[in-house]
Amino acid sequence: MSLFARGLAIENYRSVRRLRLPVERLSVFLGANGVGKTNLYRALQLLQGAAAGTLGADLAGEGGLGSAFWAGPTRRTEDRRIRLEVDLGPLPADAPGPSAYSYAVEVGYPQKGTAAAFRQEPQIKEETAVFRHGRREIKLLERRGPQLVARDEAGRRVDVDADLMASETALGRLADPSRFPDLQLIRQTLLDWRFYHDLRTDAGSPLRQPALAVASPTLASDGANLAAVFATLAHIREDTAALDDAIAHAFPGARLVTPEPERAATFGMTFPDFPQRVFEASELSDGTLRFLGLAGALLAYRLPAFVALNEPEASLHPDLLAPLGRLIAQAAERTQVWVVTHSEPLAAAIEAHGAVRPRTVRKEAGATTIAGLKFGAFEEEED
């Protein structure tokens, strides 16, 4: 069963006071620097961290809860917590109706005297996982502090002694597909998400290095296996038509060269001015290399369940934005794609090819908002 992200809710995380929004097959968020676009993207990464069991460490790595909490005004009696929730299921276009699953996690400071937690350590306060069928709701996971109840493979609610640390998520801990199959489905769905925001193009970039000669159906988040991804398409799938087409639109007359790997996989390019000269990855310009990295992410042999791109236009020449928009729209025919950008030309290109309306992200009274979002839906959808 393939699960798609159908909705996202964020509370008290950085510039986001409270947002609930639908997630489409192709979601594009456009806004100026500093309005909080990346905080939407980062919230998705934190949900994956909950599935991986690294949520506490991920928040600590952001500077701790003091940095991650909503910095605006709050009620004096309010219990300060970051809350993240994702709805998973068939996309509305495929199967209208409520989401099949939802997972939510709340994080806050430890209470005084809490065992197995440092004083400023992010602590998991609550976790819930729910399956919905029509109006029927079945709780798969309930966790409040150290108390944990889950529904097993026979549908029974059982108390689980998982010996959880305060910063550990139950979703990350209960990795037992035979005993908790529904939780495993949620967990594996989130773990299959892939985030591409750090495709470096400097001289030491992983994109410029040879890759191990191992069949690679999906691009790694840092792009370190890009050469192997290209080689997999060329020499295992034996189909580079989509890749060649993307390169032709981006670099007219250029050609990707992918030798059959021996101990390592490599690639290079030829250009119209020097058709006999193969320029190796280490020689390519930053913009050319970044476009190739994005092509590897979006045209790989097998795409992840969810692909998220944060400002993919970085380092790209303006002439490459239209080919990139076309490439992103094509990828959304195979998987779910989420794009955060401050480039209006890129958003327009995606809209032209993907027939999707970019959502404008802005700030109001210091809080991140999205134009047209009202009561968890976009206005034109309600109309």
Sum this structure up briefly.
With 383 residues, the protein is of the alpha+beta class.
Descriptors:
8-stranded antiparallel sheet; globular; 383 residues; 11 helices; 30% strand; 2 domains; alpha+beta; 6-stranded mixed sheet; 21 strands; Rossmann fold
Describe it.
By secondary structure, the protein is of the alpha+beta class. It folds into two domains: 4-24 and 39-192 and 361-382, no CATH class; 195-354, 3-Layer(aba) Sandwich (Rossmann fold). Helix content is 27%, strand content 30%. Strands 2-1-4-5-6-7-8-9 form an eight-stranded antiparallel β-sheet, covered by helices on one side. Strand 16 (306-310), helix 9 and strand 17 (336-341) form a beta-alpha-beta unit. Helix 7 runs antiparallel to helix 8, helix 8 runs parallel beside helix 9 and helix 9 packs across helix 10. It starts with a strand and ends with a helix.
Set down the secondary structure blueprint.
Elements: E1 4-13, E2 16-22, E3 26-30, H1 37-52, H2 55-61, H3 65-68, E4 82-89, E5 101-108, E6 123-133, E7 136-144, E8 147-151, E9 157-159, H4 170-173, H5 181-191, E10 193-196, E11 211-212, H6 226-237, H7 241-250, E12 255-257, E13 264-265, E14 268-271, E15 274-280, H8 286-299, E16 306-310, H9 321-331, E17 336-341, H10 344-354, E18 359-364, E19 367-370, E20 373-374, E21 377-378, H11 379-382
Parallel strand pairs: 3-17, 3-18, 10-16, 16-17
Antiparallel strand pairs: 1-2, 1-4, 4-5, 5-6, 6-7, 7-8, 8-9, 11-13, 12-14, 14-15, 18-19, 20-21
